[in-house]
């Protein structure tokens, strides 16, 4: 059944539209190497966060550990690279992680597969591989949530202490979370292979795939921002 689409409801968009928006944001983020193009990327990220504002709190707070690692990487880039380049890399890492987590949280795995196969013409094997890549950060995020629940079940408050203690605790848990997420991805890949997911070139769509005016308008808006940001990068 097709969901009723609204411009202000990102979750209601067609899976292909969601993935196209994520792709456009990635292209703009990679192309942004001056203040004006980065500003366009920032505007796009704010628009996505606004459209997904109902899940923003549930994503950003548990993702502190992952963001802390990226902030640490950014600090290293600032030290060893020109300051401006280091700052750009840091902002890009943080913004793309937040935006991608929010977009992927709005999609089920079946929607991701449908969007990849129907929206990009990918075969089953390629769609499966891309889904595992796109879903890796959300897996780290879910492992983080499981860890926090386990700590609370043992009487440990993961939110206790000052900001330094919280960051240190998140950093210590981040590496095991990434390891477990990688293990889960490998198991999922093996399970899909055993279920003969790769035995056909294409798969039947689980979700109704039909673009309407909402998908077309929102795609056009994001395309304008992306093109505008790239033009600003070229001009300035």
What does this structure look like?
This protein has helices at 15-31, 35-51, 53-60, 64-80, 83-105, 109-120, 124-134, 136-153, 163-194, 213-235. It has 236 residues and is mainly alpha-helical. The chain is globular.
Question: TL;DR of this structure?
Answer:
By secondary structure, the chain is mostly helical. It has ten helices and no strands.
SSE topology string: HHHHHHHHHH
Largest sheet: none
Count of helix runs: 10
Identify low-pLDDT runs: none
Total number of strands = 0
Helical amount among residues, as a percent range?
over 70%
Q: How does the overall form come out from the CA principal axes?
A: globular
Radius of gyration: 19 Å
Strand-pairing-aware structural class: mainly alpha
Task: Report strand %.
Answer: under 5%
Mean pLDDT: 82
Distance between the termini: 47 Å
Chart the SSEs and their pairings:
Layout: H1 15-31, H2 35-51, H3 53-60, H4 64-80, H5 83-105, H6 109-120, H7 124-134, H8 136-153, H9 163-194, H10 213-235
Helix pairs in contact: 1-2, 1-5, 1-6, 1-10, 2-5, 2-10, 3-5, 4-5, 4-9, 6-7, 8-9
Annotation keywords:
mainly alpha
